[in-house]
Amino acid sequence: MRTFSNSVIKWQKVNGRNDLPWQIYRSPYRVWISEIMLQQTQVNAVIPYFNAFMKSFPTIDKLAESSKDDVMSHWSGLGYYARARNILKTAIILKNNYSSELPCSLLDLKALPGIGRSTAGAIYSLGFNKSAAILDGNVKRVLSRYKRISGDLTKTATLNKLWEISDELLPKKDHGTYTQGIMDLGATLCTRTSPGCLICPVKKKCLARIHNETTLLPNRTPSKKRRKKEVFWLIPKDEDNNVYLEKREDSGIWGGLWTFIECDEKESLKKIYKSKFNTDQSSFKKFKEIEHSFSHYDIKANVFVVSLKGKPNPQSNVESIWTNPKELQSIGTPTPIKKLITEINKNG
Ligand code: SF4
After folding, report:
1. CATH code (residue 154)
2. How far is ligand 1, taken at its centre, from the CA of residue 117, in Å?
C-alpha cells in the first residue's frame, strides 16, 4: 500500500505545485480559505481572490469581526456564495469557541459550517500535517483509475469504496506532502482527457493504464437536462445615474447579495414598482437581455431600466441602497449585476 503513497510523495517534492500563495506561509487558516475557494473554482481564478482576502482578513479574528457585506464583496465574482456565508459563520464560531484557531480534530473540523469530510481531511493533513483521507473531484479520478473502480461517482456505494481506498493508501508520514501530491497528480497528470501516464509516478500499478481503460474511467455520469428560467429585472435609476438595489435573503441563489428587483413575469414589474415608489408614472425601457448559468440551471434575464426624478425613498421591506460603479467595490454583488450597472452608468 505504501508504494503508492511513497511514489506520490517523492513525485510531489520534485514535480508538484509548491509555490501557490496558500502554500507560502502555510497555516490551517490559509489552507481552510484556499480549500473553500478551490471547491468549485480553478486555481488561476482563485489566486487573486485569495490574495485580496488575506490582505483584508489576515487573521480569523479580523474575519470574524467583519461585516457580511465586507466578506461578500471579497467573494463577488467567485460564485457559489453560500461558501462565503459559511466562512463568516465558521470564523465567528472559531473566535467564540476555539480561541480563534481551527481545531486540530477531524471531528470538530467536520462540524463547522461549510466544511465537509474531504475539506476537513485537507485542512487536517495540509494545515496540521496529520493523517487524513480526502476525496475531491481530482482524487476521485486518480483513485478510480488506479484501482479500476467503475461505478457511478454520484452513487454512495461507489463513493464509500473510494473513501475506503483513499484511507488504505495513506502514508505513515509526510501527510501534508502526500495530500498535496495526490491533488497535484489529479490536477496536472491524471487529467480528465489525455492523462500523462508515461510520466506518472504510479503508472506501474495503475490498473486503468494496465487494462487500457484510462479513457473509460471514471464512469461518466449522464448529464441531466438543464432547466431554463426566464426572469425580469427592473433597474430604477436616479438623476445622478445611481441605481437601486435590494439585498436578497441569506438563503438561495445569490443569497445575501445586492441585486435588482426581480420578477417571474413582466406584468409584475409595474405592480412592484408602483408599490415601492408610490407612483404610476413610469416608462420602462428594455435595456437588454442577458443569459447567465448557475450550477443546475440557466436564466435569461430581461433587463428594464426606469429613470426617476431625484432619489426617491422607496417603500421596501428588504434592505435597499442607491449605488454606482465606484461604490460597488464595497458591497457584495454578483458579476452580471456588476457588469450591467457599469454599462448603464456608461450609457448615461
Ligand atoms: S497511470 Fe495514468 S491513469 Fe493511472 S494514475 Fe497515472 S496518469 Fe492516471
Report:
1. 1.10.340.30
2. 25
For the CA of 200, the nearest atom of ligand 1: 6
> What CATH number is given to the structural domain containing 277?
3.90.79.10
DSSP type of residue 126: I
Indicate if ligand 1 lies below 6 Å from the C-beta of 8: no
Residue with the nearest Cα to atom 8 of ligand 1? 190
Q: How many helices (H) and strands (E) are present in the chain, helices listed first? A: 15, 7
Are 175 and 244 in a shared domain?
no
Q: Which residues are catalytic?
A: 35
C-alpha cell at 39: 471547491
pLDDT digits (tens, 9 = 90+) for 177-214: 999 999 999 999 999 999 999 999 999 999 999 999 99
Ligand 1 pocket, mutate which of 209, 211, 215, 217 (most atoms under 8 A from CB): 209
Are both 318 and 235 inside the same structural domain? yes
Q: Is the pLDDT of residue 1 over 60?
A: no
Element (H, E) at 233: strand 227-237
195 and 61: one domain? yes
Burial category of 283 from C-beta neighbours within 10 Å (exposed 0-12, middle 13-18, buried 19 and up): exposed
Residues 27 and 173 in one domain: yes
Ligand 1 pocket test, candidate residues 146, 149, 213, most atoms within 8 A of CB: 146
Domain containing 89 equals 2-210
pTM, rounded to two decimals: 0.90
